[in-house]
Amino acid sequence: MKKTFGISVLSAMLILGQPIMAYANTTDSKIVNFDDIGSIMAQQNLQVGINQNDRLDSNVGLSLLKKNIRDMKNRIDDIASERSDLSGASDTPLIIALGAEKRALLDNIKILERNLEDMPTSVTSTDFAASLSDDTQTRLAEGAFIAHNKLALAASDISIGITTIQDQLVIMQLREKLGVVSHTSVDDLQTKLTDMQTKLSSTKLQQDASTRQLKDLLNDQDDSLEIGSIPYTNDGLIGTDEDVDLKKALENSYTINLQKEKIVILTSTLARAEKDHGLSSDEYKHANYDLSNANIVLSQQKDKLNSDYASLKDDIDKKVGNLRLEEQKLEDKKVALSEAQLKMSLGLITRLDLDSAMADYQLQEDTVKTNQIDLFTAKNGFYWFLKGMPSTT
User: Fold this and answer.
1) What are the tens digits of pLDDT across the range 100-131?
2) Secondary structure in 3-state letters for 43-69
3) pTM above 0.90, yes or no
4) Contact 249, 386 (CB under 8 A)
5) pLDDT in tens, 43-71
6) Cα 77 to the center of its chain, rounded Å
């Protein structure tokens, strides 16, 4: 049976220029809000389950390697005991065989002990890779959640446009009968209506695709989950201490930590090349070039992290500005709608004029909501950046 998840409070969305709060029913509710995604992914996403098995497997490999080394050393002790009991000429072939076995065991132990030296690094790398995959899956789910909501707004805008054109078409057809407009004008408007209807169908198909992607990632096999709304707070402030932010992003960066692990391995490889082949050997030179290049890449990654931080902050500031502009436009549309309603009550404008003012207001309201989603998405990307995920900007 599927588990139910706690429902977070939906944040304020501007309706008629005023914030309101909507609350989901927490009793046996199947609504999935944005804040629920992480916990559901951790419990139900199939790739996350595979990643956890990879972590466990890497630790099993470490235990198995230690066991094999221990068994081989025990066998060498047994060989020493067996050889101590052999002394006659007839025992010579067996003594030779035991000596060969011991040498082979010593060679294998040397190889396995080298692997054992690298194993902790390998386990750490596996854990990093698995965690990166976990977070990537969660970000994909969040992206699908956001796309679902944004496409819903796009569909709403198109539907408003369709309604407006349909109203216009009725008037246009009446005017055609009166000979005021040509049939070509009516056909053009009908074509525009058909195009809008086609665009609406396409948008709904895209929304369905986002919904399916999200449900697949959440492993919603019985299709019982309902997608909630985007949370929103009207606070553009984020990352007020650059030094603290960059330090956090540097410490958490998957890309940089994986590169550091690679450098550890290459450093060990270089030391072995020196020990086994000497400083003038091709093996040593090759290992030294690899290590040098890896350090250069690490430096590049750190530089990119700094530039990504600046780009993310700039993008958030830009979206804050865009939202404030659209909110002001919404206030203007609200005033225009109020004036249209007054004029309608006085008989100064037609019903079609009032409907047009209402449509303009609704479209601007959706534009505000779209900009809210854009700002939320940018801020969410910044938080992921601090958690160590590569920037997608």
Assistant:
1) 888 888 888 777 777 766 666 667 778 888 89
2) HHCHHHHHHHHHHHHHHHHHHHHHHHH
3) no
4) yes
5) 999 999 998 888 887 766 667 778 888 88
6) 54
150: Cβ contacts below 8 Å, ≥ 6 apart: 370, 373
- The structure tokens 């990119």 sit at 304
Three-state SS sequence of the chain: CCCCCCCCCEEEEEECCEEEEECCCCCCCCEECHHHHHHHHHHHCHHHHHHHHHHHHHHHHHHHHHHHHHHHHHHHHHHHHHHHCCCCHHHHHHHHHHHHHHHHHHHHHHHHHHHHHHHHHHHHHHHHHHHHHHHHHHHHHHHHHHHHHHHHHHHHHHHHHHHHHHHHHHHHHHHHHCCCCCHHHHHHHHHHHHHHHHHHHHHHHHHHHHHHHHHHHCCCCCCCCEECCCCCCCCCCCCCCHHHHHHHHHHHCHHHHHHHHHHHHHHHHHHHHHHHHCCCCHHHHHHHHHHHHHHHHHHHHHHHHHHHHHHHHHHHHHHHHHHHHHHHHHHHHHHHHHHHHHHHHCCCCCHHHHHHHHHHHHHHHHHHHHHHHHHHHHHHHHHHHHCCCCCCC
Token pair listed for 267: 């450093």
pLDDT digits (tens, 9 = 90+) for 200-222: 999 999 999 999 999 999 999 88
